[in-house]
Amino acid sequence: MTEKKGKYYITTPIYYPSSNLHIGHTYCTVMADAMARFKRLSGYDVRFLTGTDEHGQKLQAAAEKAGMTPQAYVDNVVAGIKELWKTMEISYDDFIRTTEPRHKERVQRIFMKMYENGDIYQGEYEGMYCTPCESFWTESQLHDGNCPDCGRPVQKAKEDAYFFRLSRYEQKLIDLFENNPEFLQPESRRNEMLSFVRQGLEDLCISRSTFNWGIPVPLNDKHVIYVWLDALSNYITALGYPDETELYETYWPADVHLVGKEIVRFHTVIWPAMLMSMGAPLPKQVLGHGWLLLEGGKMSKSKGNVVDPVKLIERYGIDALKYFLLREYTFGQDGIFTNEVMLNRMNYDLANDLGNLVSRTVSMIEKYCGGTVPESKVPGDHDEELKAVATAAAAKVEAHMDRFSFNLALEEIWVLIRRTNKYIDETSPWVLAKDPANQERLDTVMHNLAESLRIVSILINPFMAATSKEIRKQLGLWFAEVEWQDSFVFDAMGGETVKKGDPIFPRLDIEKELAELEAMIGTGGEDANIPLELKPAIEYDDFAKIDFRVGTILKAEKHPKADKLLVFQVKMGTETRQVISGVAESFKPEEAVGRQVVVVANLKPRMLRGMESKGMLLFADNGERCEFVTTTAPDGETVS
Ligand code: MSP
Fold this sequence. Notes:
Number of strands: 25
Strand order of the largest sheet: 3-2-1-12-13-7
CATH superfamily of one domain: Isoleucyl-tRNA Synthetase, Domain 1
Distance between the termini: 75 Å
Bound molecules: 5'-O-[(L-methionyl)-sulphamoyl]adenosine
Strand content: 15-25%
Number of helices: 21
Shape: globular
Structural class: alpha/beta
């Protein structure tokens, strides 16, 4: 029996059910699942929480757009998310939805606790508001006048609101980061947050009255509680805090909150301050992981380039996808997702290294030993080296898992897999089999191979549970519980009946797969209709102020003082004027001449590097290059 080691509480962020989740979200949940399974297997009493963050203006707007009530809208998306986790065999113990009564009531109690402790007061908020991020910013926090988180424009906004005295916790947070380096990792994020807090914390506006899809403020039902206060509380409301104490007392404080790098600030500044205000212990650790990016940049629903995990699972299976995500990327750093890298990992590591080891071992035991795993009889060259690698692997995996280095933990397991494949070549069982006098040595080689593979089946269990089970079935170990302790010992087998199965990972034709995946990407699924992420809605009257005209480009040249600018002479009916655009990297000036384009003709003139620009041309922009918005209508005509 593996020794019992105490409790371990791990959480993922709760996801916005604004549309289906993509491979980036899957990445975080797969890591949390592997860790939860690893800790369970190594003897911990694990609680693994995930869920959905269902309130807020963005979700209300998405529901309105879809012509649904917010509740019906989120119910639908959440059902899909739960289905995805079921398909992926995510072993969560609880799934919390912020629209559940258990959560809503407890968030209101938390709000009152903070209020009673003198940390919440009523005031008026005036600031710069980013609607997509639902965040207020001070002027000094803006980047070039835009939201520092998402880069989109912000609007001045003013509202009656409740505030949390975040400023009161400034010094305590500084102490937390300084005295407790493990609290936030990786180190780079800790430094970032420490300097953020040192710049000074302002009180935080924690209520909204401009929309109503949220948990009402208990003191004033015209306000709803700020979505982050609502969301962060999930980690304890799911444990029954504050009214039901059993789970809370067993599992809180969390051992680790696993979160993406862009939400580290909420988890390491606002969340600890809230807990301090409630008088509750702080989580032991927050780990900020990097992002999965595409070669062209971010995965985004609006660009339509999200990678759909369901499609990949349908083609390659759950374990291949999990293995790839955990093996390829380094925790804490961003990584680029490409089909080619994924397919190569699947072919080399899974089909070749692991798949071959399983099929060779089982077929040889069938062929040379009548299908029964023999005892060890005659030692020989390479045995000791193989045993040493096999019995040292588990401790190395543990050490890497302690640091959330999933990739290095898997690499350790593959060191053993590759060593075992090499052992087959070194011992050449097919040569031994030619002479019956070698039978006892052949039996020993087969025994050692089975032992190695048995250890591999335990070590991969947290990462690839189904594959572990299949290997154990083929090895005749289907009856035995997987016990972590057993991965430290060699010579546990003898007498089991092996049974060859289908290849555990079929070899892929990479060229063919690449072509087919390429054709799939960008569809987001055949029938997906994903709402666009847009700037805030405007009134018709705002739109009607813009005077669009058709123009013909008569001349185009580079701006003498700015590499990125092109200077156009544009004829709009009776008038020809100069317009400057930042598109020099997208095409050559001569390619523009003669184009019929759309001009914002009543934009106030501006000086750009010493030259006047009167108006603006419209371009379609894919984030990398711009193309003219063109028309066949004659120049001078209005566009409306
Ligand atoms: N609802 C908040 C979290 C509240 S937790 C109290 C939220 N939701 S989210 O759906 O936008 O994002 C959830 C998580 O998914 C974040 O940790 C985020 O970093 C992660 N990811 C979203 N896209 C990602 C990638 N492309 N790559 C890796 N993780 C990414 O934020």
